Amino acid sequence: MLESFKRQILRYIGHSEYRPVKLSKLAKGLGIKAEDYAEFKKAFEQLRQAGHIIIGERSAVELRPLKGQVTGTFRANRQGFGFVSPLVPDSHDDLFIPPGDTASAMTGDIVAAKIVKRGRRGGQMRYTGKVVEILQRSSNRIVGALSKSKEGWLVRPEGKGYVEPVIVGDVSAKSAREKDKVVVEIVSWPTEKYFGQGVIVEVLGRAGQYQTEINSIVHRYQIPFKFNDACLSEAREATARFRDFGEKDRENITGKVIITIDPPDAKDFDDAISLEKDSNNTRILGVHIADVSFFVGEGTALDEEARQRGNSVYLPGRTIAMLPEVLSNGICSLQPEQKRFVKSVYTRYDDEGKVLVRRFARSVMNSAQRLTYEQADKALRGKRGEVKSEVVTLLKDMERLARIIEKRRIKDGMLHLDLPETELEMDKSGRVVDAHPADTSYPHTIIEMFMVEANEAVAALLDSLNVTFMRRIHPEPDAMSMKELAKLLRTVGFSFPKSGGRADIQALLESVRGTDASVAVNLLVLRSLEKAVYSPRNVGHYALASRHYCHFTSPIRRYADLLVHRLLDNYLEGKSLPKRQEQDLTEAGRHITFTEQRAEDAEDELKTVLILQMLEKHIGEELDGVVTGLANFGVFVQSKKFGIEGLISTEQLGGRWDYYPKSYCFAEQDSGATLRLGEGIKTRIVSVNLAARQLNLIPAEPLSKGAAKGKGKRKERGKGKRKRSGKYR
To answer: Count of alpha carbons within 13 Å of 606, Cβ hemisphere only?
Structure first.
């Protein structure tokens, strides 16, 4: 509890809305109970003695002022300024670096920055700095399109990182042509007066072509995609070991009706489901997960490669697997009518979905049928098609149990964010030709509920054994974040208590479901919550209302799950569980959290590129959107159909518009019309900047005459896939 209080204190007083208060008021703001105050005060004293916080004027608690230099990670902005995030987090905001003081640092560089200006704003200290030294470059390579200019051959880096073009020399050495996408190794870093210089080390192909764009993203994000000979050799040996090992020491469940449900293009089937009733008519859910740890031993070349990759990466049209295909799509994948090794989690439920008993086993199974989500949904709605009759019966039982579990979990406080997801429609060449809302049928929820239950079961077991393990944690939001959320929601017409909890968030999300305001409000809630991460810290999972939680159900594609499987192996074999150092797991958790975010960012950016390529051919056409962000330089609008965000600059709003940051809205001086978060708006495409990943829009209709009003009309529900388990799961 002591460490938890420390994190709460630092997070709270580091918030932009915090105003220095005395310790007693700080405790009240954090909701510290009387019986916990002594422990809270002890945590405060330790932070003060360590120099993280001070008692300032009028005995008010403040963060220690920044002094001298800050060492941290630089993040560039295309407008010339940047920010430095301290390597050692201290709850201060990132250090602002104005244009001209960045020393040509690139995004991701480790830099030393000198504090050059201090000032109070809103009761808090604000700092400005100057980069004085680049300690370590994030990468000496960039990716971009080759072009000819009066300065010579240039490559302008893509994305939102390094923003200045690089001059390249002999392009003929790699047979590069203008408009080719190339990888450049920098040999001379830029200065304030001169461009950087580099050499082309690889030609990826013609800019705009599908495979070229995929290769560009893979190189830019430095995603490993080739397996070395040692990994491939071990994978082949593992396959042979499966054939030779037989079914020794495993429960034979090949006679049970067990199915998998996955997307239509999936090949790595991690999980399968069975559901039976015992003699007392009590439901017994079986969640059967590919036994990857049997094939990937700790300390092997396969294990090290999987650890470095952290997870599989799913890009539009291409999967970069964590394990070689002979395992991920072969012997580990729970293919239909094939014997496969699994770890089974059995949970017995009462009629209200409460857990009665759990049991764990190593098994050998045989999937009765592989279904897609669409097939499962049709079968549940009476359109059986090629689905076996016994499988239809199983599906109906699964749906009944899932709805009971979902009802119980919602009652416990589980949150369901409702953020639309778009499926791209591509032609044979890989170009996006259209998009549609992704499937959101109930079988998605069935599988989600069962996977959450299995993950929770394994975490509860490991907790009962008092072992340190890799958890999936989601800390409870601090009071200041909820206060800020309430403030923002008031600007768009929604009432929310300053100290809101799970029930308040649930009620809010339900009130906007199916309206234009839904996307914006769900985004505001998401941003007010911390991101779920991997860590051995025992803080639970807020969004799932779960005290014990880890990832166990996807070991083919997530290294965190493989770590948990190995602990379960020891338990099932009756061995003592290894004592892992918390520091080692903390570092491993940071790494696989990073690789997870890298994969998400790569997927999102490639989707953006492919959609922007299509929209380049639709300049002047209209897009229906929703206002998702406001800033003094313009309005961010998310396309309802494509899910991509564009910008209407302030100058393009039409009329004389002023931005009011406290009210978080734009107002037109003459008509009094306003523009707020969550309002529907018709826009027109003006231009596309592929290199900057930017879509520029204008209003399709004069806003001063008919600015979007209110929260929008209710629309038919269930027409688009919702990200229910993404950022915070």
So the answer is: 29
In contact, 370 and 265? CB cutoff 8 Å: no
Per the CB < 8 A criterion, the answer to whether 132 and 114 are in contact is yes
Query: How does 578-609 read in b/e, with b if 16+ C-beta sit within 10 Å?
Result: eebeeeebbebbeebbebbebbeebbebbbbb
Q: What distance in Å separates the CA atoms of residue 310 and residue 207, rounded to the nearest whole number?
A: 29
Please check whether residue 454 is in contact with residue 287, taking contact to mean a CB–CB distance below 8 angstroms. yes
C-alpha 633/C-alpha 631 separation (Å) is 5
Residue 263 to residue 300: CA distance in whole angstroms: 31
- The pLDDT of residue 709 is 42
- The CA distance from 562 to 567, in Å, is 9
Q: What is the pLDDT of residue 67?
A: 66
Which DSSP letter does residue 476 get? P
* 196-206/166-168 β-pairing: parallel
**Sole residue written with tokens 């959320």:** 485
CB contact at 8 A, 356 and 457: no
Name residue, tokens 């012997």: 331
Are the beta carbons of 513 and 714 closer than 8 angstroms? no
Strand partners, 348: 284, 357
Q: Give the span between the Cα atoms of 624 and 637, in whole angstroms.
A: 9
Whose tokens are 């339900």? That residue is 510
Task: Report the C-alpha gap between 490 and 481 in whole angstroms.
Answer: 14
Mark 322-336 as b/e (b = at least 16 C-beta within 10 Å).
bbbebbbbbbbbbbe
pLDDT of residue 711: 37
Nearest to 163 by CA among 240, 70, 259, 99: 99
pLDDT in the model for residue 81 = 83
H or E, element range at 145: strand 141-149
Amino acid at 613: Q
On whether the CB atoms of residues 455 and 550 are closer than 8 A, the answer is yes
Say if CB 515 and CB 713 are below 8 A apart. Answer: yes
Q: What's the pTM value of the predicted model, to 2 decimals?
A: 0.86
Cα 121 versus chain centre, distance:
32
Tokens of 20: 């220095």
* pLDDT tens-digit series, residues 436-473: 888 889 999 999 999 999 999 999 999 999 999 999 99
Determine how many CB atoms are found less than 10 A away from the CB of residue 18: 22
Q: Report whether 184 contacts 144 (CB < 8 A).
A: yes
3-state secondary structure string, 76-141? ECCCCCEEEEECCCCCCCCEEECCCCCCCCCCCCEEEEEEEEEEEECCEEEEEEEEEEEEECCCCE
Cβ atoms of residues 485 and 525 within 8 Å: yes
**Per DSSP, what are the bridge partners of residue 697?**
685
d(CA 30, CA 32): 6
* DSSP characters over 31-42: T--GGGHHHHHH
pLDDT under 70 in the chain at which residues? 1, 16, 65-67, 78-79, 88-93, 118-125, 160-163, 244-246, 705-729
What single-letter DSSP state applies at residue 329?
Answer: I
**Residue pair 639/424 in contact by the 8 Å Cβ criterion:** no
- Alpha-carbon dihedral 85, 527, 692, 654, rounded to 10 degrees: -120
